[in-house]
Design brief:
Helices cover 5% and strands 31% of the residues. It has 322 residues and is mainly β. The chain folds into two domains: 196 residues, Sandwich (Jelly Rolls); 80 residues, Immunoglobulin-like (Sandwich), CATH 2.60.40.
């Protein structure tokens, strides 16, 4: 019984992966600016905010508690809650018009490990929509991430729609509630050699999609058809995942005829299948990834899944039904 309890605790424990983002919640700074950054001004470098920079002419913001310039201190800027973690947070506006005008602000991080080629990574961060009078109330629903070997810098542009990001968020999961912090997740494949990640909205005004319907017919020039986002708690980690089916039907109808785990970016995975008496039926791995169930009766089978490199150990059961 003690052994069973130990196994269950081990199965449901998780190990924290290494976060590749430098200064993930903007707490490591030398000073605080205390007001929105002017066009072309890199408030992150001015503030000594370790790891972060503004990559283009449009200027993202850094908000903190003890400003030395201006007096706009959270939570007294427009209308929003305090930083999710600590005393500081980033922020940027995504402003869109009809096809005549685009303005996007971006934020860039010098990550602490060079990305490996063809490897999957997951970028997570939390955002909160401003919701105050300065907001246009029309939030675009896609973030993207772009990677570069050297620091990306183009002080002549206000948007990056000419660049294809490595990955984008799921537009169906993008929230527009002003009352909380929400998680944005982007899974992307690295080309290899990336040391900097640039995050923002890579759509232009002609193809931007929105969380809800927005009437764009009267948008002209700098009309605030836009949304402002506060940003906190960034992370980039190597991405891996697995899914094990709970039933399969090897009746040769070409539907669900094989039992196989869906394993992403785990080279050393192994899955042992046992019958109800504890006898080993077969062992699956990347070189032998599925089981046909041939010559075995219907019923419940048990599995033990593990990956030494990812410290994963899971046991469970599935049904064979013809």
């Amino acid at each position: 019984m003690k052994y069973l309890v130990y196994i269950l605790l081990f199965c449901f424990s998780t190990l924290k992966a290494q976060n590749l983002i430098t200064n993930p919640s903007f707490e490591d700074i030398d000073s605080c600016y205390g007001q929105p950054a002017g066009i072309g001004f890199d408030v992150f470098k001015w503030s000594g905010c370790k790891g972060w920079s503004n990559p283009i002419k449009s200027s993202s913001d850094l908000w903190c508690q003890n400003p030395v310039v201006g007096n706009m201190v959270p939570p007294l800027i427009f209308s929003y809650q305090k930083p999710r973690t600590g005393e500081n947070m980033g922020g940027f506006v995504i402003l869109v018009d009809n096809a005549t005008y685009s303005y996007r602000e971006f934020i860039q991080n010098k990550i602490n490990t060079t990305l490996e080629p063809n490897k999957l990574y997951r970028l997570n961060f939390y955002y909160s929509i401003d919701g105050g009078s300065a907001s246009g109330g029309c939030p675009p629903n896609q973030f993207g991430v772009y990677g570069s070997a050297t620091e990306f810098k183009d002080s002549s542009v206000f948007f990056l729609s000419h660049i294809t990001p490595l990955g984008t968020s799921d537009e169906n999961k993008f929230m527009d509630d002003t009352l909380g912090w929400y998680l944005c997740e982007i899974v992307f494949k690295a080309n290899g050699g990336e040391n900097y990640l640039t995050i923002g909205n890579y759509q232009d005004s002609s193809n931007t999609t929105f969380v809800h319907g927005c009437d764009t017919t009267n948008w002209e020039g700098m009309t605030l058809a836009s949304e402002y986002y506060y940003l906190d708690d960034f992370s980039v980690e190597e991405y891996y995942d697995y899914s094990i089916p709970n039933v399969f039907t090897p009746n040769k109808d070409n539907v669900n005829d094989f039992f196989y785990p869906d394993v992403i970016q785990m080279e050393d995975w192994e899955l042992k299948i046992q019958n109800r008496w504890g006898n080993l039926i077969t062992t699956l791995n990347k070189n032998n990834p599925f089981w046909t169930g041939e010559n075995h009766s219907d019923g419940v089978y048990f599995y033990l899944f593990k990956s030494e490199s990812k410290s994963i150990f899971k046991q469970g059961c599935f049904q064979l039904i013809r």
